[in-house]
């Protein structure tokens, strides 16, 4: 039903003074009671939903903080960890259609409560392998474990080793082989994360629609903003919890901590990764309890009673014309179906025929690939590049990077509101944010550390850097008389500041002390670099990285925080661009396609191929007890920097080209009149077909600034 502008003016002028309904004369006390009841119910739901958002954001960010811990505990490569990380998105996709379609017709609060229970069950399942795999075993020379037997690290003859010690060693290896099946228990971690994704699915669509249905219209945007604010706090606590658990030993409470021969700075250290999942699972259970006591329906506010249309439609369709409007809609439906062209088909063709939407969708998919891969492996990059511990890395990310992202998202929305930026301006702001963000990221190439000096891997035993064939270079004249294995990883630090893969490969003839206090003497290879004739000593553990590394790490933190803020500023303008460039009746469908594409084409594959790329930079792989490749022990710092940052920048650059194309199409389709109107404070549109088709009420736009992918970007 089309109405001309003159008819609109006449229509509104005739309805300026409306007759007062008798129902409006009901007592003020009953009205205030109903309002308080409505507000009280929705506020209880708001508090419960905010706590759920906090719980799911905490558990999701905690998983990111334990990536390296899981990799070491289960002796798996980064590519497999990427599959585990992407299983959350797979679980979410399995039931998103069912939840979105049937959820609104059922008891929404109870479905959210059931989702919380499923999410907590998945979180508990992730921690379960710790209690069935036995104690964590790391590679260590026998003399550092048992001080009663003094065995020479350099076994020039097997007869030097007491038979009982060899027997015990072989017995332990055989016992490890019998429990080798425990290494496949990473599958339970994958299934647990998959279950987390299934449980998380109903929280967002059903929770937000429940608020939108029963909240006072002018408060809906505020309530959704409160939920999102609490969701931003979740990752902060998630990474801080990861920092705390990474300091604790994996088998804390089950082993004597004084007998440990490794510290939290060692590459073999595994923190109490499982403890955080138990805490996160308990929080998810508590978060789901209130929803089982909330009603299926709340009393609707007075402004929404007896209204089957949205607020935006109700301003143009009065009570006298509602029946006519409904009959018109039915006629349109019948006409379309009679032609054999379902409305869904027209929606799909109309949506994908919009060049701005398609180009922005492509830009978002590629940019999310860049951001998700970068965030997933950022803890690993900091640990390997700058020699930082897992605990410190998680603490820095949680306390510095996440708040910068949150402040950037808020700043983007504030800029949009302050300067009343139109669609073209939103596209420029989003493009500028991405351009300067990735430009800052380019500077991180110059803020790396040199490789640690590891004899046989990054330096030769004679002091020459960058050996060509590191497997052959592990053996030298200084350790030729020792019967050493090249698969061992039991690093020691020599007096000369060089790390040796094991005491045997360092040519050490004697040792004293036990545990962390073990000292090796008469190490023939340690004295090779400075004085070949003099043998030196070494201590347990790798040497620290170069002196320039702490300063480089500070520079990295500063640039990383600025980069996170800059990239986040363009998030809200880009999302508003998406909302304003599609017709109002296609918004829900367009957002659904957008979310589905991001999850399938970015959330699932990005961690996997980033992990595969990172695995190519490994210099020393660990070995499992019964053979086979384990987790990586040492990475090539330079190669890791170029692969990690390079892949992020390449994807970011491609997304910028698509963003430029979006801006070009908008400029081409916009008219000087639109720019003049937007300069006077009115809202611009994506096309110039007719103002009538693209008109959207300003109040509705303010309410639809909710960004469902905000937690994913964090």
Automatic annotation (TrEMBL):
Domain of life where this protein originates: Eukaryota
InterPro entries xref list: Kazal_dom, Kazal_dom_sf, MFS_dom, MFS_trans_sf, OATP
Region (Disordered): 300-324
Catalysed reactions, semicolon-separated: L-thyroxine(out) = L-thyroxine(in); 3,3',5'-triiodo-L-thyronine(out) = 3,3',5'-triiodo-L-thyronine(in); L-thyroxine sulfate(out) = L-thyroxine sulfate(in)
SUPFAM superfamilies xrefs: Kazal-type serine protease inhibitors, MFS general substrate transporter
Keywords from the UniProt entry: Cell membrane, Disulfide bond, Glycoprotein, Ion transport, Lipid transport, Membrane, Transmembrane, Transmembrane helix, Transport
Gene3D superfamilies membership: 3.30.60.30, MFS general substrate transporter like domains (1.20.1250.20)
Domain Major facilitator superfamily (MFS) profile, first and last residues per copy: 45-670
NCBIfam families: oat (TIGR00805)
Protein name: Solute carrier organic anion transporter family member
UniProt organism field: Cepphus grylle
Lineage: Eukaryota, Metazoa, Chordata, Craniata, Vertebrata
